[in-house]
Design goal:
By secondary structure, this protein is of the alpha/beta class. It has a domain of 190 residues: Methylesterase CheB, C-terminal domain (Rossmann fold, 3-Layer(aba) Sandwich), CATH 3.40.50. Helix content is 45%, strand content 18%. It is built from 12 helices and 13 strands. The strands form 3 sheets. Strands 3-4-2-1-7-8-9 form a 7-stranded parallel sheet, with helices on both faces. β7, α4 and β8 form a beta-alpha-beta unit. α1 packs across α6, α3 packs parallel to α4 and α4 packs parallel to α5. It is elongated, with a radius of gyration of 25 Å.
């Protein structure tokens, strides 16, 4: 009888301490393989393997492309690469970003569900937005077990809240209880009914896209074209309605949940507003300089027109600046999401 011997865990902001407590509770003879994704900026080194290794009985290392999967080992996704599982090995690939991240949690969770079905236990910890929710849904659909950190103790509760709302996980618990639960689950056999489940063609295509396989990238996207453009490459986004949680994916593979797309569009808007502010400030400065020159040459009408123009441009610049200041709260949240996850 197959065992639940594939553990996949994901977190973003505030997740490092949770990972440490969970892996620290696993015994030396733990009979499962563990794979971890922490959201890390692409240009930052990851110290997560070293941090976890100091408190774990099990060996911890950065995942390596095409390396075999060993039981009783903890693998950590490296920066700027997705960690994807196949039946006989792991892949470490620079596939398209998902939910604005690489590594992202969903590619790991979905690929584990495709390769190992009901043998998978998915664990989601602290973080913002909703990366990991779709992956947990796929794990559930494939017969696996889903565990979510209790949002009341999570440093950032949005990610656990979204998973609970859209997935109905099997267990919602404090981090201190997750390690002992994994020990228990790893010792249990998979029920025959769950073991009979097979991955869907759509799931196979999703995993191939994460691995940058050309047949999947060149195929027509699933779903229907939306009216939205991809924030990363400006291509058309296809809207995919699956498992209750709507998602978007462009032709080259960038993928977004609804919340991640809204955040990306907000950042795109902020960038456009900063550009508009710069252009207005420069236009006002040019208008004032031209007005001064017209005054010196005695061109009264031109001086008056240019001064009025400079005043209008300065007024418009003040309005844009006010919009940027009022948008500061959402910007701060984005910075926390990106910054706190670097503790790996």
């Amino acid at each position: 009888m197959p065992q639940r011997d594939i553990i996949v865990m994901g977190a973003s902001a505030g997740g490092v301490d949770g990972f440490r407590e969970i892996v620290g509770a696993l015994p030396r003879d733990f009979a499962a393989s563990i794979f971890i994704v922490l959201h890390i900026p692409s240009d930052s080194p990851s110290r997560l393997a070293a941090i976890l290794g100091r408190g774990a009985e099990l060996p911890v290392s950065a995942a390596r492309d095409r390396a075999p999967i060993q039981k009783g080992h903890i693998y950590v996704a490296p920066p700027d690469h997705h960690l994807v599982l196949e039946p006989d090995m792991m892949r470490v690939v620079r596939g398209p970003r998902e939910n604005r991240h690489r590594p992202a949690i969903d590619p790991l969770f979905r690929s584990a569900a495709r390769a190992f079905g009901p043998r998978v236990v998915g664990v989601l910890l602290s973080g913002l937005l909703d990366d990991g929710t779709n992956g947990l849904q796929v794990i559930h659909q494939s017969g696996g077990i889903c565990v979510v950190q209790d949002p009341r103790e999570a440093e950032f509760a949005t990610m656990p809240h979204n998973a609970i709302e859209y997935d109905s996980p099997d267990s919602i618990m404090p981090v201190r209880e997750i390690g002992p639960l994994l020990v228990k689950l790893a010792s249990e056999g998979v029920p025959a009914k769950a073991a009979a489940r097979r991955a869907s063609p759509e799931l196979n295509e999703e995993v191939k896209i994460s691995e940058m396989k050309m047949d999947a990238l060149e195929a027509e996207r699933a779903g229907k074209p939306s009216v939205f453009s991809c924030p990363e490459c400006n291509g058309v986004l296809w809207e995919v309605q699956d498992l209750e949680l709507g998602r978007f994916r462009c032709r080259v593979g960038h993928a977004y949940s609804g919340e991640s797309l809204l955040t990306a569009k907000s950042e795109e808007l902020e960038s456009a507003l900063w550009g508009a502010l710069r252009a207005l400030e420069e236009s006002a400065a040019i208008s004032r300089r031209m007005a001064d020159r017209a005054k010196k040459k005695g061109h009264t009408q031109s001086h008056t027109r240019l001064q009025h123009q400079a005043t209008e441009q300065q007024h418009q610049a003040a309005m844009v600046r006010d919009m940027l200041l009022r948008n500061g709260t959402s910007t701060a949240h984005t910075e926390v999401e990106a910054g706190t996850g670097t503790n790996g």
